[in-house]
């Protein structure tokens, strides 16, 4: 009996066909991402209209109608205000920033001594960049130089009074210099203090624990402004009569105490995330408390909370602006002072221009830090999670 | 064999006391307490000496003294003849005012932006991302000053006020809005509101009980909305419409009538709420992304529409992740309200600073700061903890 073999096996691949035109190209992308539903379409149109209204105004103000050169306020005034620009003009007044740039960077630091600040900045960068680049070796030496040696170099270089350098008192410091000094000191002191406080809070010794909890919760419960205020009004009361404190030093103490309390909580989160087995493993190896913490627990805990630590740094950097309230002149303080106290540049646009400039500087620093922390997080991810 | 026997029977050798962890910790703590007492004693001694030298008497008697300074933005009666205590109350109320308004605005904006960052719409997603990246990387104090000196201070003078819809005006003295004036008392309306709230709570309870018993659902949201809006409205009509609207009138030198939102308050509110909103947006995004994808698939499999599934399945689970960090953002906003001192908004810190300058009672003023801010923190976290337990996973 003859059987019909109906099975059929295809031996060569079917030719690939192009995707349907409704699924590829700009049209499909727009259908999927911009006009997926009537509601989406409405949202897109509204958002596009809002952008079309706002963006040209912002760009015009920043660049196209902005004034780029001039010697004083008349460059940025309209005819009715006594200048030469057409009536109804608005735009940034960049020559104001250009003229005050030195003040924004160094404050009232003497002109002929500014090379010291610049040298300090160069050393800072020369130590910081290799520290942050993973491929460059000698990390331990670099870290010691950056965290332990550099503060002394900076202290003698910036303050002076030794080695033939003239003494520059801190009330003359200002601008970005003060912002960076406060954030650097805050960052460098808050990490070790925070680790000690976090360990204290998890300690088995009741008194150590109580003291850490009281300190952390009290400091976290009050605003930084109040802490700075205390540091600036109360510290002089606490020390023997006749002993005076530098104003900048008082702010530094306030900032360091404040940020260490926040840092302690971040690190505590990391400590809590380490499984009990790690502690027990260290104990069974016969390690002492500090060996256990330093070699087993802390490296894992700190790695877990890098984003939190960097967020605290970013917060600290933004919080340095608050020293303005106890009348220290950081970057924001110098900008504010130039706006309200400099008649050469008093125009309706000065304030906006100055603050936009300061905002850009702060934004670059904070955004850079957050990007770097995301990069480190990806790099250090050993794949335990997910 | 013999040696093992010997080990078993011999007493464990006593380690020296120096290596005993218990003794060590006792000694260490005793030393710590001793140092602490010494330090505190030194500080107190110095403080007493310093205060004696500058002729400042400690104590709370100064609170009854005449304040002598004026506060422009106030919620309760206050003149420069009022006491320091009253000035502090005005300051606390102003702090609470800006904190509560800021929390409401920040929550609304933050949730919108956070959900927007997860939208399918590319344009909305990008706009929300840009918003978050810009606002959370700029210090709030800078934004406050930008609004105050950069935008609101260069608004036109009173004569050239910008007219906005509903007879409101914007000028260098702030934002003028129509005000509602109660002829007589609005007690009836308040009573109506209270009755509406109680009734809707009762309806929600009954509806829940019914759904548990019979499985039938009841449109609780719409009924309670109708009750909460309807009852005060009914009371208003019944009591003979006792309210009129007072529009701001444009005079030659000033706007009269209406209510005025001061530029200080406006700058502080705008800056704080938009700054905090950028953080809340990130928290909301993380919360929604923290709900496993299986949950979305499960509600689709059960046949729920996306809107209902989001409301009944995703959001309750996301809230569990969102609430704890949201609490700390609320506390941050409250604490950041102290930045108002930079632009002269009379909140607690700025009033306290003025009092300190007048009386020199540094310790008392700082103690008041501590007490007020700590209690605001504790009350907020207590409330949010209660809400958190209510929302937390109930494992059976």
TrEMBL record, chain A:
Gene Ontology cellular component list: ATP-binding cassette (ABC) transporter complex
A GO molecular-function descriptor: transmembrane transporter activity
This protein's record includes keyword Nucleotidyltransferase: no
Residue spans crossing the bilayer: 39-59, 115-132, 144-165, 171-198, 210-236, 248-267, 301-329, 349-369
Keywords per UniProt: Cell membrane, Membrane, Transmembrane, Transmembrane helix, Transport
InterPro entries hit by this protein: AA_ABC_transptr_permease_3TM (IPR010065), ArtM/GltK/GlnP/TcyL/YhdX-like (IPR043429), MetI-like (IPR000515), MetI-like_sf (IPR035906)
Record flagged with keyword Transmembrane helix: yes
GO biological process: amino acid transport
Domain ABC transmembrane type-1: 176-368
Localization in the cell: Cell inner membrane; Cell membrane
Principal cellular location given in the protein's record: membrane
Topology within the bilayer: Multi-pass membrane protein
Domain of life: Bacteria
Family note: Belongs to the binding-protein-dependent transport system permease family. HisMQ subfamily.
PANTHER family, alphabetized: INNER MEMBRANE AMINO-ACID ABC TRANSPORTER PERMEASE PROTEIN YHDY, MEMBRANE COMPONENT OF AMINO ACID ABC TRANSPORTER
Protein name: General L-amino acid transport system permease protein
Source organism of this protein record: Neomesorhizobium albiziae
From TrEMBL, chain B:
GO biological process: amino acid transport
Keywords: Amino-acid transport, Cell membrane, Membrane, Transmembrane, Transmembrane helix, Transport
Membrane topology: Multi-pass membrane protein
MF terms (GO), sorted A to Z: transmembrane transporter activity
Record protein name field: General L-amino acid transport system permease protein
Location in the cell: Cell inner membrane; Cell membrane
Regions that span the bilayer: 26-44, 84-113, 134-155, 175-199, 220-245, 265-288, 365-387
Organism encoding this protein: Neomesorhizobium albiziae
Family according to the record: Belongs to the binding-protein-dependent transport system permease family. HisMQ subfamily.
Residue span(s) of domain ABC transmembrane type-1: 92-384
Domain of life per record: Bacteria
């Amino acid at each position: 009996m003859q059987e019909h073999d109906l099975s059929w096996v295809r031996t060569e691949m079917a030719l690939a066909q192009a995707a349907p035109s409704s699924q590829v190209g700009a049209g499909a992308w727009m259908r999927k991402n911009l006009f997926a539903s009537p509601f989406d379409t409405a949202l897109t149109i509204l958002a596009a209209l809002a952008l079309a209204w706002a963006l040209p105004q912002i760009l015009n103000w920043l660049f196209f109608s902005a004034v780029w050169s001039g010697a004083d306020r008349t460059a940025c005034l309209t005819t009715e205000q006594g200048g030469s620009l057409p009536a109804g003009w608005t735009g940034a007044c960049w020559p104001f920033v250009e003229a005050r740039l030195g003040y924004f960077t160094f404050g009232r630091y003497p002109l002929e001594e500014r090379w010291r600040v610049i040298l300090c900045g160069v050393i800072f960068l020369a130590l910081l960049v290799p520290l942050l680049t993973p491929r460059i070796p000698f990390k331990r030496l670099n870290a010691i130089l950056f965290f332990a040696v550099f503060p002394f170099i900076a202290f003698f270089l910036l303050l002076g009074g030794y080695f033939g350098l003239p003494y520059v008192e801190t009330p003359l410091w200002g601008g970005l210099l003060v912002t960076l000094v406060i954030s650097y000191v805050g960052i460098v002191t808050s990490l070790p203090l925070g680790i000690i406080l976090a360990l204290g809070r998890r300690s088995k010794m009741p008194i150590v624990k109580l003291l850490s909890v009281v300190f952390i919760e009290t400091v976290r419960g009050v605003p930084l402004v109040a802490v700075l205020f205390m540091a600036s009004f109360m510290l002089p009361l606490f020390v023997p009569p006749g002993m005076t404190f530098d104003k900048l030093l008082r702010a530094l103490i306030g900032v360091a105490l404040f940020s260490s309390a926040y840092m302690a909580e971040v690190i505590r989160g990391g400590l809590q995330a380490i499984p009990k087995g790690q502690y027990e493993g260290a104990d069974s190896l016969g390690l002492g408390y500090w060996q256990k913490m330093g070699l087993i627990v802390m490296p894992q805990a700190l790695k877990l909370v890098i984003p939190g630590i960097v967020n605290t740094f970013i917060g600290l950097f933004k919080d340095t602006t608050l020293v303005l309230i106890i009348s220290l002149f950081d970057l924001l303080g110098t900008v504010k002072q130039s706006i309200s106290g400099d008649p050469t540049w008093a125009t309706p646009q000065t304030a906006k221009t100055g603050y936009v400039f300061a905002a850009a500087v702060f934004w670059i620093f904070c955004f850079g830090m957050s990007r770097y922390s995301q990069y480190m997080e990806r790099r250090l991810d050993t794949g335990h999670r997910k | 064999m013999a040696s093992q026997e010997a080990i078993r029977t011999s007493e464990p050798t006593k380690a020296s006391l120096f290596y005993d962890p218990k003794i060590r910790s006792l000694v260490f703590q005793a030393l710590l307490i001793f140092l602490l007492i010494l330090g505190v004693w030194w500080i107190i001694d110095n403080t007493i000496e310093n205060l004696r030298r500058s002729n400042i008497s400690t104590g709370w008697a100064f609170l009854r003294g005449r304040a002598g300074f004026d506060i422009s933005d106030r919620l309760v009666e206050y003149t420069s003849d009022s006491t320091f205590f009253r000035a502090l109350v005005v300051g606390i109320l102003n702090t609470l005012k800006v904190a509560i308004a800021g929390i409401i605005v920040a929550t609304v904006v933050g949730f919108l932006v956070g959900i927007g960052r997860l939208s399918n719409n590319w344009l909305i997603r990008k706009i929300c991302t840009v918003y978050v990246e810009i606002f959370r990387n700029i210090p709030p104090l800078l934004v406050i000053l930008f609004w105050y000196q950069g935008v609101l201070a260069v608004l036109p003078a009173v004569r050239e006020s910008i007219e906005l819809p509903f007879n409101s005006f914007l000028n260098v003295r702030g934002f003028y809005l129509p005000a509602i004036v109660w002829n007589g008392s609005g007690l009836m309306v308040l009573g109506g509101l209270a009755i509406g709230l109680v009734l809707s709570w009762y309806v929600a309870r009954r509806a829940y009980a019914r759904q548990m018993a019979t499985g039938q659902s009841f449109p609780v949201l719409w009924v309670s909305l109708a009750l909460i809006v309807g009852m005060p409205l009914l009371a208003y009509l019944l009591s003979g419409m006792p309210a009129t609207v007072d529009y701001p009138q444009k005079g030659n030198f000033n706007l009269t009538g209406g209510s005025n939102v001061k530029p200080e308050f406006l700058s502080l509110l705008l800056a704080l709420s938009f700054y905090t909103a950028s953080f809340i947006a990130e928290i909301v995004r993380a919360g929604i992304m923290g709900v496993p994808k299986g949950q979305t698939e499960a509600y689709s499999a059960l046949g729920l529409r996306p809107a209902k599934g989001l409301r009944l399945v995703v959001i309750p689970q996301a809230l569990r992740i969102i609430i704890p960090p949201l609490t700390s953002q609320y506390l941050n906003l409250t604490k950041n309200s102290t930045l108002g001192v930079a632009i002269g908004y009379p909140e607690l810190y700025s009033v306290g600073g003025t009092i300190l300058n007048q009386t020199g009672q540094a310790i008392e003023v700082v103690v008041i700061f501590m007490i007020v801010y700590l209690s605001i923190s504790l009350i907020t976290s207590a409330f949010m903890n209660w809400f958190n337990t209510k929302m937390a996973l109930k494992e059976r």
